[in-house]
Structure formats: C-alpha cells, structure tokens
Records
---
Amino acid sequence: MSTTHRKVKRMIPAKMSIEGEGFLVHRAFPSQTLLDFDPFLLFDEMGPIDHQPGNAKGAPDHPHRGFETVTYMLSGCFEHNDSFGHNGKLEPGDVQWMTAGSGLIHSEMPEKSFLEKGGTLHGIQLWINLPKEHKMISPHYQEIKSVDIPIGVSEDNKVQVRVLAGEAFNAKAIIQTRTPIFYLHAVIQPGGRWEQPILKEFNVFAYVLKGEGLFSRKSETNLKSCELHQMIMFDNDGDSIELIVPSDFNDPFEVLLIGGVPINEPIVRYGPFVMNTEEEIRTAFIDYHTGKMGTIKR
C-alpha cells in the first residue's frame, strides 16, 4: 500500500512573552494567530535562557481546572508542589503529565541547587483539553524519569525518537492518555529520514528545537529557511509525515512531533480554567476563591 505524506499547511512563529515570576517563554499558541489546536490548548517553549546564580524564575501558586498539563524538562531543574500534598522534582529529560481535572493549586519553581548555582533553563509545556466527561475527575499525575522514557531508533541509527506518548520505531510510551495522543521528540542526523505513520483523524503539528530539515520530499516548504521556535501545522490529507535531513546539512535536526484526535466540544477558557460553558467557568472561580481547590502547605 502506498504512503501519502501530509503537506505543511501553515507555519507560525512562536511569540516571546514573560510568564510566572518573570521567565521567558516562546508561545506558539494561544495567540491572535491561533487560539487552539484541538485537542491542544497551549504550547510554550520555556527558554532556553541562561540564569545567573539566584536569578532563576518560576511559576508560584496558581490554579488549574478542566485540562492536563505536560511539562517536559530539557535543561535545568524544577520543583513542584500542589494542594493535594503532591511534590516532586523534574530534572533534564523528565516528564510530568498532570491531569488537573476538577481542580488544584500548583506551583512550579526552580529547584534549590539549580537556583543557587544557576544554569540553562529549557523546557516545554503543553496543555491538553479534557473531554466533558473527564473535566471533573480527581487530579492525578504520571511522572516519568528520563531513563524510563522509551526510545525508538531507525535501522540506520540516524534517527532517534524519545516517545513521551504514542509509538515510534516499535517503541511504545509508558504514559497513558485519556484521548489518543502522540508526543515524540526526534533527533535526525544528516542523511537521516523519518517517516512517521499518522492516522487520518489526528491533528498534527511539529515544533523546531534545533537545526534544519525538510518536511516531505514532495513539499516545497524547506525548514532551512525557517527560524527556530516555529510551529508547523500539517493538513489532514495523508497517512504519514516525512522528515528529512539531507546528507549535505551540517547539523542534526531536533524537532517535536505532536498529534491528537480532536475532542470537538465547546471550549470556554479563562486563564487557568478551561471548561465547556461560561457557567462552569464562574463555578471554577467561586470554588477557587472559596478554597475548594485547597492550598499548598509547605
């Protein structure tokens, strides 16, 4: 059976902004250009930014309800705490898949030794919508250490894919998702080619972290001419996505490939709350301000 490669539909440069206590992010969406990309609600690349000792910033206590947050640390170290008494540490390569569900208070701050010594902070945060039937489930976490994340490798060893969710090169993710999702982090060496099968119902985008590459031999879009911190949206006509790094390119191409099946439900969002109706948003604010989401005890 022949394979049809999806074509690049749109390219969106991430916009720089300051979040939390004052840390830099490159935000692909939401923006005036793209509000969301069902089932995804937000994509931030945190940094990369070099912090001097004592200067690293984080996101102090803040609420969430109605969706999931996925934090993927590439460099640096964060500590997290929540109002349910959960706490932990995210080191380079670790993933935290937090289902906020009915709501909690969450804090993400630089880990003590990282704050004291300084260093490069670099990470990704992705927000994933929850379907109406799951929006008010009890909050919980899936936390995977870097060494436990499955890695798929091509036969010629020129493509390596860390599988946070989904499957690539027969490597299957440990993380379980509530809606069908894949989240893949690939490094493609010069001369390498990666063809990732994609089911037609998935919405798919890529995000460039480093280097240059081509998306599909049939596509006229050449990422060599693109800047870093760009989101690439694909059309839904095809059953695979092809990424190529020609042998005459000098450096590896590092890219995230993320896809999910649309939920196709109404979205009403206000800050840290994402529900289906305005009334549910008002209820979320009342629950937050009356303490029903708890407080973080330290």
---
Amino acid sequence: MSTTCIEVEQQGAVRRLWMNRPEARNAQSKLMLDELDAALTEAQADADTRVVVIGGRGGHFSAGHDLKEAQLHRADFTVEERWAYEELRYFDYCMRLWDFPKPTIAQVQGACIAGGFMLANMCDLVVAADDALFGDPVTHTMGAVATEVLIHPWVMGLRQAKEMLYTGERLDATRAHAIGLVNRVVPRDELDARTLEMATRIAQTPPFAIKLLKRSLNRMLDVQGMREALTAHFDLHQLSHVSEEYQATRRAGLASAIGKGKSA
C-alpha cells in the first residue's frame, strides 16, 4: 500500500499505523483519513497481524481535523455536501475503527484534540505519554456541537465529559488516567517501547477468542444505547453547522479557531 500521510510499520504480529504530518501536528486531512481507513482494511485482512497500534509521528498524536483544509475546500459546502463528507470520513470511519475485529491501541503524545481525541477513543486501549493533553474545544471555540462522534461520556463519564465540553479545557495525562480515559501513562521517551510491549502481550492471545470477546464487550455498550446515541448526536452536530454562532466562526475563518483552541 502506497501512502502519503500514513506510515505503516510491521513489528511481528503488531502493525503500527503512524499519522505522518508532523509539520501540521498530524491534523487530519481528507487524504490522511482515507489512507488510515484503507490501512485498517489491509490490517484486518492480514492474518499475521493480531494487534493494531495507531500513533502520530513527531511531537503530537493529532491536533484534530485539518481546519485550514476545510476552510480552503469545504467552507461553502451545501448542507447535503457537508453531511455526506462528514458522515463518511468522520462518523463511518470512526465506527469502523470501533468495530474493528482486532485489538487496537492508541499511542498518544502531545496534543490529542477534537478529531484526534475522537480517533484515539475509538481504539480499545490508550497508552499516553506524560506530556499528553486531551481536549475538545469545538463547542467552546467554534459553536459546533462537539465532534461528530460524541464518544466522550462513554469513555470518561458524563460529568467529566460535560466539564471538558462546556469549558473547552484540556486534561493532562495524569487526570486523564485518574478518570479512566487512558489505561497507562508512561514517560515520553518510553512510549514506543511500552506500547509495543502491551501490544505484543495482547498478540499472544488466541485471535478468534479475543475477536469474540471484543464483540461481546462492545455489545455491552450497544445494549445501553451507545450506537443510537452516537447516531443521534451526529444529526445534531450537522444542525449546529447552520446556526448563527457557527456561521460567525465560518465568516471569521475556520482556521482562526485553531488559535483559540490552543489557548483553551
């Protein structure tokens, strides 16, 4: 598979998928998201791959969706065009990762913001460096209703999610671990090795058994209504794009929200 924004690395039974736009803090462009989804499809088909790790090259996991690209190419999308684009690349791609039949680990350092936060929390486990910062300032800075997949309360609890979303503030790795958002916090210079160590141990589990176990665990949230709640939120997220509050952000330039988000 030839890629531009994703680097694929095989380490035994572990396949690492690296977002590779460090100069843009791994902001998720259209091409990056398409390549990541295609890379996951290849990893699923490869019988020798038992665990997938998603990480980011450079100092950051991901600063979220590429707002500069959005401003340049999609600022004047119709409601129908925006819906189709975001349903596929933001909602469907995320849910395919959530349903991915093999164990997945997000390896997080630096910024894990908005779309980056959404992506990391589609994974089964999160290993964070001690410099990791988690946040979703989308409502606070842009006037849109959070990210497209409102996974937040399902992975961190309702009150913690409300605080993050209402204030736009970020969580450091220590607090994220304390509330159960991440599994482990490790020194930054040990992040690669410690994540690989976890992934290698998981890869020793019989693959069919762990596939069924993951399906059963995810169904526990499905029967509580998670999937229906996520779908309903996506609809409201689209509605928020036609609000006057969001239009004001768009007129000012979507990319201007990046600076506001950094200060949140």
---
Amino acid sequence: MLIKSANFIISNTEVAKCPKESIPEYAFIGRSNVGKSSLINMLTQRKSLAKTSGRPGKTQLINHFKINENWFLVDLPGYGYAKVSKKDKKTFQKYITNYFVQREQLVCSFVLVDIRHNPQKIDMEFMQWLGENQIPFCIIFTKADKLKPKAIEKNVNAYLKELTTSIWEEAPQHFITSSSKNIGRDQVLEFISAINNDFYQHRKKTF
C-alpha cells in the first residue's frame, strides 16, 4: 500500500463524536511506552503524525487519522503505567471500552507488545477481553531492532505458546516490527489493504 495522504481529523473522549463515515477503521493500542506513536509514524511515513514522548501515557484521547481518504487509523491511549491519577485511568478505561464495544466501523485492532519482554499479565487480560467481546485483533511486536534474530524468534514463540496455552487454541495473526529500522511496515499495510479491498468490493455488491 502506498500512503498518499495521512491527515489528523479529530481527538475526543466520546464514541458519539467519532467520525460518522462508513469506512474501515483500525485501532492501535498497547501498554504505555510500547512505541505506538513511533510505529504509527513509521507506517504512514510521517515524522510527527502521532506525537512521540519520553513520558509514558502522553496519548490520552481517541485520535482519528484519515489515510488515503478511504480508511481511518485510530491512536488510542496506552494502558499500564501512565503517570496519571486513578480517576483519570478509570476515565480512560471507560471510553476505551466504549470505543471497542460501540464503534461499528472498527474492523481490526492492533495490540502492540514490546518484543523484549515476557508475556505481561495486563496484555494477556486485554487480549482475552477482546476475544470475549468478539473484537478482531492482531498482535504487533515492536522494537525488534533491540534483539538479534534468534532472540526474536524465541520471544515470539514463547508469547504465542502462552496465548495458545491459556486463552486460544490458535494464536492471533502477528507482525514483527521496528520503527527505527522500518521492519514490518509492508506486511502490516498489506494486511490492511487486503481487508480494505474486501470491504469495498462487498460494498459495491451491496449497492
């Protein structure tokens, strides 16, 4: 997929205020400091489309970006150890939950996981919640440039084994990425492109 345009549309905390257009939507979410903003900028090849920060938890709104005028990329607040109050965390949880449950345009979510770490309880619980609510998702392993190939394979296999042991018979589709090395960009965008093609072909047949 060639990214011809990538434009910020709106930020908010209410699903009702999200864009009304009936076009495919892809949400990106993960623990704070997982490299979400850097990944989004790498995918779109825009250096500052999503704001990066050394301070975990900077993204605190539902951020919609319109890509190629025919699909939305949604940057969601990170979860985990963001330096915000307990009250704010509950607020985030509420509108993130509302987004996933209520947003009809959402066709797939990407859960970002730092490839350097063992499976984290908070990630596993969130993916289980997505599964229980029948919300399609894939896993994106980030920061692959920090490990050697054998370590990458070992860590990914360990993660997928944990998933298939504790949650599913078959692990969700996954991608291995590095924002600094541009690894995995084509694979993620090809996946999105395939879903978009199916979506628009189905819509042509419907109308």
